[in-house]
Amino acid sequence: MTPLFASAVAPVAGDDLVYRVHAAGDSDDAWSGVLTQIRERFRVRWAALARHSFATRQGFALYSAPRDPQLSAALSDYASRNPWFLSSDAYREGRVMAGDELLSNRELVKTDFYRGLMLPHGLYHRLCGVIARRNTLVYYLDLHRGPDEPRFGPRERNAFAALLPHLTLALDVRWRLRETDDMNCALRSIVSTHARAAMLVDADARMVFGDKAAHDVCEAVAGLRIEDGRIVAAASADHRVLQEAIARATHASADVDERAAQVLSLSAPGRSQPSVISIRAAGAVFSAELGEMRRLAIVTALNVPSEDDHADCAFVRQFGLSPAQARMSSLIVTGHSIASAARELHVSENTARSHLKQIFQKTDTHSQMELVHLHGRICISL
């Protein structure tokens, strides 16, 4: 006996379905709930939010109601033989179309797609809405009824068309959230694995980003430590200098080159050489906690032990330093004095001074700190 179907009503402001669509966000369970409600609203056997690639002729269901693993698997298996996707021109974002607009039901029943997928699962009538189109990739919502159930009428098509813009916006929000999360993971991976580990801090020197690698840096570089989530100088005499450098980076005006790094040499109690760090502006981000934008700075430790080849860094190549000069410059920028550099190089202090003088001439610098700053601006930007 053919069931009686009530026509779907177009969604309006305050409609619970519209609310649930926009509230779905990046929750898979919420999206499954949306499909369940769509199925109930339009009185269909199967509702599926799916994607299809016209380039690879592959497709699959992202969410469906009811959840039917066998039907979803069949949709993927028969994607290349789906007769509704023989032409990509019909799939324009926002368009609503019935299955028989693309292929008559008489022709549909002759296909392997119908015999292998639709017939075993009791599907026949189709109403499709294109949610998004990206080049050869299309995201769509399919509603299916059985052969003993009524075709989709004009009122249902109108209701379906009114729902599509909400689905398009919600899907775009989901994509942007995922893109942001994925980008954050990628950036965190870069920061965590960088040879010279870095930390993001706000204007109060509070660590905004810092994992185990960041804490290890503060342990390895005795000139820094973390107190109550804030980066501070190990020596109280350096605290003001560090805070002022962070303040300058987080309050840089628009006409200041934010790529320029401030390079500091901080006292390192218990170590023979001071620690060397760079601080530069890292732009502004919105803080959900504060409800407003806040500017950040990136603090990078320069003299953390690493496998960097100082003899072939950008600084050495740019100024054409000899191997001996390259070794001397790498020692100076990582906090060595002339005397300790001479010991490391197994040369006299006079020879070390001679190397340093030649480095000054080639780089047009006049002091060790000026050399450290120049090195920081060139190598930290890589």
What would your notes on this structure say?
- The chain has about 375 residues and is an alpha+beta fold.
- It has helices at about 15-25, 30-40, 70-75, 100, 105-110, 110-120, 155-195, 210-220, 235-250, 315-320, 325-335, 340-345, 350-365, 370-380, and strands at about 45-55, 60-65, 95-100, 125-135, 135-145, 200, 205-210, 225, 230-235, 260-265, 275-285, 290-300.
- Strand 6 and strand 7 (about 205-210) form a beta hairpin.
- It is elongated and about 100 Å long.
What is the total number of structural domains?
3
The overall pLDDT average reads 83
Instruction: Please tell me how large the radius of gyration is.
Output: 32 Å
N- to C-terminal distance: 72 Å
How is the biggest beta sheet arranged? 5 strands, antiparallel
CATH class of the largest domain: Alpha Beta
Specify the number of helices. 14
- Any idea of the CATH topology of the largest domain? Beta-Lactamase
Quantity of strands, as a count:
12
Percent range for helical residues? Answer: 40-55%
Q: Could you name the ranges where pLDDT drops below 50 across 5 or more consecutive residues?
A: 1-5, 305-309
The secondary-structure class comes to alpha+beta
Order of helices and strands: HHEEHEHHHEEHEEHEEHEEEHHHHH
**Apparent shape:** elongated
